[in-house]
Structure formats: C-alpha cells, structure tokens
Specification:
Blueprint (H helix, E strand, L loop, with lengths): L1 H11 L2 E2 H12 L7 H13 L3 E5 L8 E5 L1 H12 L3 H5 L1 H10 L6 H16 L6 E2 L2 E2 L8 H26 L26
Antiparallel strand pairs: 1-3, 2-3, 4-5
Helix pairs in contact: 1-2, 1-4, 1-6, 7-8
C-alpha cells in the first residue's frame, strides 16, 4: 500500500520528498505510523525499478530533490488500481488507500468494478466472533465491549454500503458522494459486520 500511495500522489504532481512524506503520513499514518525507515527505502526501490525518478530541485531551497512518476510508474499504478489484491479489498485501511486514487483510472467502469468487489465483500455475512460457523451479532453479546465492537462495525459497514450503492446506482453526483445521507432502510446483512 505504501508503493500505491507514493505512486498515486506523484501521479497527481511531482513532489519533494518531505512533501510526499507528509501526504503519505496524512493518508495512512493515523492507523499505520509512517517512518523514514519505511518511506525512503520504498522511494529508492521504486526509483530502481524505473517507476519514479529523482531530479534535483530547480528552485533549490530545503528540498534537495523532486520526485516524479515515470510512464512505467503510471502504468504500474493503473494496474494496481484496476486489480487490487483481495486483501486490498477486504482490509479497511488498504481499501481506503485504493479509494484515494481510484479516480486516476480513466474508465468509470473500471472504477466501478473495484467498488463492486468491495460491496460484495461487505455484503457477505461475517463477524469478529462465531459460534461454530454462525457469525454472532451484537444482540448475542453479553460482553459490552464486544457488543460495542459489533455495533460500531455495523454502523461503519452500513454507511459504506450506502455510499457504494449510491455511487454504483448513479444516485448521486461525484462531488457530493462523500457526503452521503445515512441509510433509510435496513439491509438483512447489516447485523453481520465485516472485519
């Protein structure tokens, strides 16, 4: 996901290393702290693979170099966005990293194919806790903290599914998708949050 975030931000515009670090940290750092020990080796690896290039900063100043995505890097980014791995669809933070750059795919149908994969994942019955093969719901939990986990996960799941349906059904213009209203009906799988 770090590689995707680096390439995604550089696809938007060339950036000095410190600015790229700030943007990646803001996107991913609230759940997975970003260290120089992971970012700068990733930049070097991507540069060695020909996916980005480092150029001296023409303005000088604090930035010693500017990072820019290459044509190969853009092709790699688009491939990653078209076909995210299953764990990039199922993991909340990883999917949000994909989502942050999904609009870089030029074909809306390709964007929607990724969203449909996420929706399919969210609508499958699941829980954090099971009795045999049966997913347990919040109402099944005596433990208030586990019940809280399930209620919170259910609310997040419901909000995301509502937004996905609105986007995929074309009910909402792109500019206001992030401001989706809460659902007005219950989904049968809403009590079975995804993990």
């Amino acid at each position: 996901m770090l590689d995707l975030a680096i390439l995604g931000f550089l696809a938007e515009r060339p950036l000095p290393g410190h600015e790229l670090r700030r943007r990646v940290s803001e996107l991913m750092g609230y759940t997975r702290p970003m260290s120089d020990g992971s970012l700068y080796p990733a930049i070097k690896r991507l540069a060695a693979a020909g996916l980005l290039e480092r150029r001296a900063d023409p303005a000088g100043g604090a930035a010693r170099y500017i990072l820019n995505i290459t044509a190969a890097g853009r092709a790699d980014l688009l491939k990653r966005l078209r076909t995210p791995a299953d764990h990039e669809i199922s993991d909340f933070t990883r999917f949000f990293t994909v989502l942050a750059f999904l609009s870089l795919l030029p074909d809306v149908e390709e964007q929607h194919a990724v969203l449909r994969r996420r929706l399919e994942f969210l609508e499958a019955p699941a829980s954090f806790f099971y009795e045999g093969d049966r997913p347990l719901r919040a109402k099944d939990m005596a433990d208030p903290y586990r019940r809280g986990m399930l209620l919170t996960a259910r609310a997040i799941n419901r909000a995301e599914r509502t937004w996905l349906h609105q986007v995929l059904d074309g009910d909402q213009p792109a500019a206001t998708r992030a401001e989706a209203d809460p659902p007005t009906h219950e989904n049968p799988s809403a009590d079975q949050p995804r993990r």
